[in-house]
């Protein structure tokens, strides 16, 4: 069985293979090859216990472009609301012949539990678990950085400086990114108020700063994060005005960044809080591009996990592992 549960499990070669494959698949889409037969006859289940706009939609588009049979399952409206367990849900999906399960769950560790179980025989792909990891988000972020910061050159991100700003404490995106970016040679700085940093941050492979203005002039990319009210006790929620004054990205701060540096955001954005509308809409902000790149990256992950080969002429086989 092959799974993608954590960006920390990816070696440099694994990550580069996924990014290079995603680039080839993106080129095929650019040449109007909209659909490949690679996963014809394979069933992929999108098992979402938490809300999603981008991840769920882009996995579905990726699966359909690879000709998979797609089953969309969301906890709302399912027997999960009647108390059915993850195990019984998984056994039910296995009985329907799932070759892969893409899972988003509010509990950190749920995808690892599925991957380690014998409830499912297919591949498990983590689409975001609690505050733990979101590996395909980190891959699409690295793909986006590589396109902007290494055009036509290096395959990795060696020496690139990336600041990740905001609610690190609750962010699975920050966790996956710090693993993947450091594997690819980038230098990561977390910028956040002390209350939004996890205990033990000093053991992570990154720098920490409380001063956004000091960090911005040195970055190649800045990644703004949403403050996740839904995972926070209201008593700890920072006031919007104070937060955006110290940690929000506005036009004045954008002007202090190097000209080549890009502004990223995994979405959903809260305009006026972590990012102002003029910055979100500026040509230097890659948020929409990140969504488009997510389709190519998720196609690559599905293709590599479920098997199949794409040939130089754009045709593909449907070999099974
Ligand atoms: N970036 C991200 O995971 O967005 P969604 O929650 O909309 O999937």
TrEMBL record:
Record carries keyword Membrane: no
Domain Aspartate/ornithine carbamoyltransferase carbamoyl-P binding: 2-146
CC terms in the record's Gene Ontology section: cytosol
GO BP terms in the entry: 'de novo' pyrimidine nucleobase biosynthetic process; 'de novo' UMP biosynthetic process; amino acid metabolic process
Residues holding L-aspartate: 82, 172, 226
Pathway: Pyrimidine metabolism; UMP biosynthesis via de novo pathway; (S)-dihydroorotate from bicarbonate: step 2/3
Organism superkingdom: Bacteria
GO molecular function: amino acid binding; aspartate carbamoyltransferase activity
Keywords: Pyrimidine biosynthesis, Transferase
EC annotation from Swiss-Prot or TrEMBL: 2.1.3.2
Catalytic reactions on record: carbamoyl phosphate + L-aspartate = N-carbamoyl-L-aspartate + phosphate + H(+)
Protein function: Catalyzes the condensation of carbamoyl phosphate and aspartate to form carbamoyl aspartate and inorganic phosphate, the committed step in the de novo pyrimidine nucleotide biosynthesis pathway.
Self-association state and partner proteins as the record states: Heterododecamer (2C3:3R2) of six catalytic PyrB chains organized as two trimers (C3), and six regulatory PyrI chains organized as three dimers (R2).
Family listed: Belongs to the aspartate/ornithine carbamoyltransferase superfamily. ATCase family.
Descriptive protein name: Aspartate carbamoyltransferase
Natural source organism: Kitasatospora cheerisanensis KCTC 2395
